[in-house]
């Protein structure tokens, strides 16, 4: 059976509804009455977003066209399953009982719809896990065959998630099976066997700390949080043994990462390294000390104990861990940042609710709109007095975060925890920005205040935050503000203008304003700022800095510049431009050939950049047209470096164009990654390490190299497959593979070597500057450089570890400073863990 439907809306172009009315391109036809605006239409599932399909939780109106009786019943069943337990009401017990009766009756005819919807509800509405485990238990109590189908389906989904390395889904599903023990649908021994699958690598108690083992232990502890109460009743000895084994591993992991700050967001707290497991273990132990009671979310299965006592328990096949996934496929989510005060005696409740928020954010990652709607529903299933909800009270400003858990603040904390997660985020930064925008649209006043408070709490600790996290926050804030009329209370940050230019607060505010200028224009940004901000924004709009102005040239230079300019403006050819340069500079007898070539190179690059300075498209066309001449002039590393430096000088007042132009020059092989690295780490940039633009270019360059390696690996696999297919075909043919294996292998080897050179060269430049007294202009400048160094090691830790022996022998030697060598050791530990 196909259980491919999704609750939250389907990926664009990925729907597969059997009765959809579609055009020749597979798109659903839209019923648009006269004068209906394209954006003024009823919501339909399956048009936008990453998850869902027909009958989903937020699909709105159904498919266009007549709906027969069977479809109507299926739609009703899906809706009943999705909506049950939306709120903790006195009628929930009766609703579950009634729904179990309906499903038992209709499951015979509509098994596919019931099972598909049930599966997606468990995965995509994770905070209702107690509701759906209860519903599964009731189905099993009424009809063991139906119960067995549900349990078998979810077990198959779990096996599939394991095979794909979908650890977010594995965690959610294991929580579901933990609660199935409470409904007597599976035995405690069955769940213990499932946990033992994850604990198998830890057998003997001396397991090596690794990313995979971190992930397995995280899933086990997350499951024990919900299974502890039933396991204590039915298998207390086994529960203690598994908890002790997991705790022993967590202790070993914490000791290895002690003092490692590479995964620490704020450095004003005692460094624990990657302390997620430590935090979770503390929560589990706190729950164990309270007789394993988890009271944050309503647990309706406790009301059906008598029905469950007579139910049949089902056996399940053994689970198997994946064996071929790379270490990067494993993850342990970062600890939730505590950005606002909260009662210490409610730590467990806060963790549980934030865990549900995090799971919802993860499971609905492909659909920010449905994710936003679901996040605002989680508190509806909370037990009484667990948390305060500002959107549900008459005077939200009276809610005190220091005396109660506030749901909106917890939700925002999780969002920022994901945004600032180290060593790397799970998803692209824009997801968290777009999700925050959707949430604020839903509650414009309250969530606007919440997000502003959260940003303020981070900026208040800005001198302690990791450099990369500060960069992410700046990106987030600029896009967020730009979506709401550029409104922000800038008076709170006026002091930033008077701080040193490379202080964290000054740089954060300035870089955010520069991004806002990119997203709008200078006069718009200037108009919304107090006069005290004048030192934080450019005096004039971003523009080019053309060197060969009339006033800045001597007579013979003017002749060359005018001739080249006329040639390019009149759409002259590459050959004509080169001929003009040759004709004029050959007359300069007072300089040698190298100097003559250097001047010609500079003249051509300046005029090509000027020709393309109007728009991005103009720039692309100009570089593409004169690519042969630029490549000819870039015939050595020194020549390439000059081209890059001329480009930087030309776009000195426009960092965005600078980054884009450098990217295009790399694409057209005018310069190479080694050129960019040499340019960025030039001694002329000392004192400017706090500027974000250089590191944006560095990351774009390294990622481009890594992407090319991945692409070539894919091409090699395709070439090998094609070659093998032809070798197995006995039919004589003269058709050759699109690419020979040998050619792709040679290209890949060359690119892998370039990847190694990029990593080693960048690390060498960092070490040289940080280990030299002249590598920074002061302590603040050096702190920025060291922060970016840690960011580089952390981001490209796979390549760093692959080249560890080379780096250790040639870069991180005794001549390197102590903090440089320590950062290298920390990244090796981080990669091992």
UniProtKB/TrEMBL annotation:
InterPro entries: ARM-type_fold (IPR016024), CBP80 (IPR027159), MIF4G-like_typ-1 (IPR015172), MIF4G-like_typ-2 (IPR015174), MIF4G-like_typ-3 (IPR003890). SUPFAM superfamilies: ARM repeat. Residues 1-64 are annotated as: Disordered. One of its GO terms (molecular function) is RNA cap binding. Keywords: mRNA processing, mRNA splicing, Nucleus. It comes from the Eukaryota. Residues 20-43 have a biased composition (Basic and acidic residues). GO terms for biological process: mRNA export from nucleus; mRNA processing; nuclear-transcribed mRNA catabolic process, nonsense-mediated decay; RNA splicing. Pfam families: MIF4G, MIF4G_like, MIF4G_like_2. One of its GO terms (cellular component) is nuclear cap binding complex. Residues 1-18, 52-63 have a biased composition (Gly residues). This is Nuclear cap-binding protein subunit 1. It comes from Coemansia spiralis.
